[in-house]
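so i finally got all the pieces together for this one. its two components total, 494 residues if u count the protein bits. some of the lines might not be protein, just check the labels. i wanna see the whole assembly predicted at once instead of chain by chain like last time, that was a mess tbh
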Amino acid sequence: MSDSDSGGRDIAVAVVDAETPGNVGTIARGMKNFGLSELLLVDPPELDPDGEAYGFAGSAREDVLPNAREVTLDHLVENYHTVGCTAVTNENATKHVRYPFKTPRELADSLRSVEADTCIVFGRESSGLNNDELARLDELCAIPASAEYPVLNLGQAATILLYELRELTIADDQLPEITDRADERAIEGLHDQFADFLVAVGHPEEKQAKSGRLWRRLLGRAHPTGREVRTLRGLFRRASEQLRDEQ
Amino acid sequence: MSDSDSGGRDIAVAVVDAETPGNVGTIARGMKNFGLSELLLVDPPELDPDGEAYGFAGSAREDVLPNAREVTLDHLVENYHTVGCTAVTNENATKHVRYPFKTPRELADSLRSVEADTCIVFGRESSGLNNDELARLDELCAIPASAEYPVLNLGQAATILLYELRELTIADDQLPEITDRADERAIEGLHDQFADFLVAVGHPEEKQAKSGRLWRRLLGRAHPTGREVRTLRGLFRRASEQLRDEQ
């Protein structure tokens, strides 16, 4: 297991017998989006640099996809803790090829404390991993989906797995911290200002307390930022002043 | 909001100005996989029944895709609680077009108690939703991804949103309950059997307790099924019997 430049952990992804180059490109892009880099291909289709694999790979065409290695299933079994992905599970414990399994979230939780080189293994578009292949892998993962149509496209299934593993593989995501939540004093100041606004606008006195509670519930659910609170407080203050000037 | 046949809640999905029919097909398939059915298209590309949209839609070519409706952004704003998806957020609260936002999981949690008709809105492949479009939508959602390459493919981004909303939209998933977790008495029985096996196999007496603890830790992490425990217990019993017969 090597750390990527961003400091996250690298988990390998393998695709067995992919039938369409486009899905390999989609998987490569998803890997780069979620901080993974090691793509292993068992019996891959030809990946033409002018074809769909590279067309679908986004900026992963520059690294993940050209660095993909062709390997055997034996190589995966011998060198990695392997996780086979399948939409089709056994109903119960009477057969162990497809049971028990983890969901993607359970898998991410369980891999958190595992230091082994790990490889997530996907199968062919038409029929996934077959029983002989699954029987050789260490554990299973299945994505919960509609009972009416649970079979995901290969690229979409891989995207979900990569997304769920992100907390292991991404050191830093692109999102800023939302650090501007208003503090309680500022929110109370806005409530006071709103109460004054109700008076200034001539809202019937017997309804003021009720309207104040309505406003408190609304803000309480919205978890406003400091800036939102300051802006609204200023607006209500100015409105109240102007309303009183008009009188 | 209408309930689908499976009993889950229907959340609408809208794509504004999609550029490639294939992504519309991918989104339709993902919707069907996760129990959604209402697809709304603003300025869509032509969806040729023999083209990529239908080619990528899986069995959603039978319902979600042909039932898609062409609408305007005005229609979405007027009729739905709208959630705009974007990979590009503002750094802080100085601008409100792209701030604050929820992650997909936070969005799913917050929609749990909301009864409004809700529509998840995605933008064009090349540049997403623009500021004018986002400014009209009610709230924002951003997928945490690698800071180095956070921009997901449209179809992949939609798949992740649909996956995270599944607990709202799917009444029943395809996965069986794993109801066969072994009970503690059965596991203790296996531990007793293993201890007896250590004796029968002639494991040094001073190491037996330590090896027993090693085995307890291993099983403890694996959360074995009843069947696994019964099978192993039977194997160790038979091995112990045969080892003693040989003596």
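Chain B has two domains: 12-169, 184-246.
Residues 2 and 10 of chain B are 6 Å apart (CA to CA).
anyway lmk what u think
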